[in-house]
Amino acid sequence: MSRILPLGGLEITDAFYAQLEAEDRELRFDRFEHADGIAVGQHLLRAASERGLSIAGALWIGGQTVFSFALPGTSADNDVWLARKAAVVRRYDASSFLAAARWSVLGAAPGAEVGVDTIAYAFAGGAVPIRIGATQVGVVGATGVNDFVEHDLVVEALRARLSDSAGTA
Fold first, then answer.
1. CATH no. for residue 26?
2. Residue 30 sits in which domain range?
3. Regarding beta strands 56-61 and 64-70, do their DSSP bridges make them parallel or antiparallel, or are they unpaired?
4. Which of 12, 29, 97, 159 is the most buried (most CB within 10 A)?
């Protein structure tokens, strides 16, 4: 079965929804420090550069920006999109894509009638929580191409760091 996301009209399948839920359970660290944030940010930057993508990205631990970049072809508007996607992650404690998909499952669209300012929140793929165990400690995001590519790049960067951390544990 396919669903249309409430904002942007993206169509997702039940299989993709299940993938988002699985990623939400998988992407958990035992610890996450500034060096980890920089490594994740560098992976994201390198992957986007190597693929010729016009992407901006940022990583926050708590409210502090630990890493940010903007590749050619991006603009200050991408910074606004990053902040809006990160706001979704912080509010709903899920990736921005998963939060949008959950609204879709409800058959609803987030908006003023349910207390969601869609100027402050972007329900689109590309931002993912950073967690130590079950506790959200930060956010990493990308924007500039499309929701699926942005989400996948961020997940790839987090998985790479998890893999590196497992090798040194």
1. 3.30.450.150
2. 11-168
3. antiparallel
4. 97
Query: Angle of helix 76-92 relative to helix 96-106, nearest 10 degrees?
Result: 60
Radius of gyration of the chain (CA): 15
Which DSSP symbol is given to 133? T
DSSP H helical ranges for the chain: 14-26, 34-50, 76-92, 96-106, 147-168
Which residue in 125, 153, 154 sits closest to 17, CA to CA? 125
pTM for the model = 0.91
pLDDT single digits (tens) 150-159: 999 999 999 9
13 or 138, which is more confident:
138
In 65-100, which positions are buried (b, 16+ CB within 10 angstroms) versus exposed (e)?
Answer: ebbebbbeebeeebeebbbbbbbbbbebebbbbbbb
* Matching residue, tokens 């996450």: 32
pLDDT tens column, 112-132: 777 888 889 998 999 999 999
In three-state secondary structure terms, 94 is coil
- CA proximity to 95, closest of 45, 130, 132: 130
Look up residue 76 and give its two tokens.
Answer: 């200050």
Find residue 132's DSSP bridge partners: 29, 135
Query: Is 36 inside a domain boundary?
Result: yes
